[in-house]
Design brief:
Helix 2 crosses helix 3 and helix 4 packs across helix 5. This protein starts with 14 loop residues before the first helix and ends with a strand. The radius of gyration is 20 Å and the shape is globular. It has a seven-stranded mixed beta sheet with strand order 6-5-4-7-8-11-10, with helices on both faces. A four-stranded antiparallel beta sheet has the order 1-2-3-9, with no helix packed on it. The chain is of the alpha/beta class. Strand 2 and strand 3 form a beta hairpin. The protein is built from eleven helices and eleven strands. The structure holds zinc ion (ZN). The site of zinc ion (ZN) has 9 residues, from loops.
């Protein structure tokens, strides 16, 4: 399974990581818990939805992201289905950045994106410092073991769905090459594409991997890139598509890279997660450079428009922020119902 079992405690579920993920300090969290315990029955009583509602109330009392400007979404349509009704539903400070939900397909769109959202991806700082708006990583360079193992489990899951194991993996947004390293160990040929020259240099230094610096579209147009059209068995995106404005254009490039019957897989943040209801503007996937948050329906639509058919859409996560409030069994059924924060998609190229 790509997502760790809620029963298994590991270092990644520690309190400090919870605080970092919610971008709050310890005092605030202690106050939330004190409020929660004052008004709520213990975990063994109260239904799961009562407990989540209690946490939502307690959290909202201590952490506020405020309102959003009127008409912030006016004149914008859904980038996935073209639906005309986008309703702003959540804001995150600083900014505030505001996300709206499409009435037709439930896709989440950042309706007031900054002009320079993509500039950060070309700097080395992107992998060392997560800024106040949530852009970047805290300590990506020191997470090799964790990220290689995560990559290994992800590939195992994807291959399980695809049936025949792929032999040629192309990863878009391949970073330092952690998942490529896991794939190579399983005997796959790999290639990587990344906008960030610093990532390419690190992948070379750590693993001796060549990485094309630029977009997939640029790689396919460049005869010297080593990224040939129609060559790949599997094209993989891990938390990349939410950063790309024109999703359909990107997935058409992915389709071009694949041979007929090849596979596409991606991990993206969900806009249907129960954590979004509970933590509001502090939901882990609200970052100033996340232009999209997906629904199962918006995933199906964008795949259909670009020549793919979904074979798996499931939710999960690696860090269970709700573990103290729901039992492992309750958490599992929540994810099974499609309410986890991370959406894993495996799709087949329609020839
Ligand atoms: Zn839509």
């Amino acid at each position: 399974l790509p997502f760790s079992d809620p029963d298994v405690g590991d270092a990644w579920c520690e309190r400090q990581l919870l605080l970092r993920t919610l971008q709050i300090d310890e005092g605030v969290w202690n106050a939330v818990i004190a409020d929660y315990e004052r008004v709520l029955p213990p975990l063994s009583q109260g239904s799961p939805s009562q407990r989540l509602e209690g946490l939502r109330e307690a959290f909202a009392r201590r952490v506020s992201h405020g309102a959003w400007p009127a008409n912030v979404a006016s004149g914008q349509g859904c980038p996935v289905c073209g639906g005309a009704e986008l309703e702003p539903v959540v804001a995150k400070r600083p900014g505030p950045s505001v996300w709206a939900r499409c009435a037709k397909c439930a896709h989440g769109t950042l309706v007031n994106a900054g002009e320079d959202a993509t500039r950060a991806y070309t700097s080395g700082q992107y992998y060392a410092v997560r800024d106040a708006t949530g852009v970047g990583y805290d300590d990506y360079g020191n997470e090799a073991a964790y990220r290689e193992e995560k990559g290994r489990r992800l590939l195992e899951r994807v291959i399980g769905v695809a049936g025949a194991p792929p032999s040629r993996l192309l990863e878009v947004g391949s970073g330092y090459g952690y998942t490529r390293a896991a794939a190579k160990r399983s005997g796959l040929e790999t290639a990587g594409v990344d906008l960030n020259p610093h990532a390419a240099a690190e992948a070379q230094r750590k693993y001796g991997f060549e990485t094309f610096t630029g977009s997939l579209e640029q790689a396919l147009e460049n005869p010297g890139s080593g990224i040939e059209s129609g060559h790949w068995d599997l094209v993989l995106y891990q938390f990349v598509l939410e950063h790309i404005a024109d999703l359909a254009r990107e997935l058409r490039s992915a389709r071009e890279a694949l041979h007929p019957g090849g596979w596409l897989s991606f991990l993206v943040p969900s806009f249907e997660a129960v954590e979004l209801d509970v933590f509001g503007g502090s939901y882990r996937s609200l970052r100033a450079d996340h232009l999209h948050l997906f629904s199962a329906s918006s995933v199906r639509q964008v795949l259909e428009r670009t020549g793919f058919v979904a074979r798996l859409i499931e939710t999960g996560c690696n860090l269970h922020l709700l573990r103290g409030f729901l039992s492992a069994e309750e958490l599992r059924s929540l994810y099974a119902a499609g309410r986890g924060p991370d959406l894993l998609v495996v799709a087949e190229r329609v020839s």
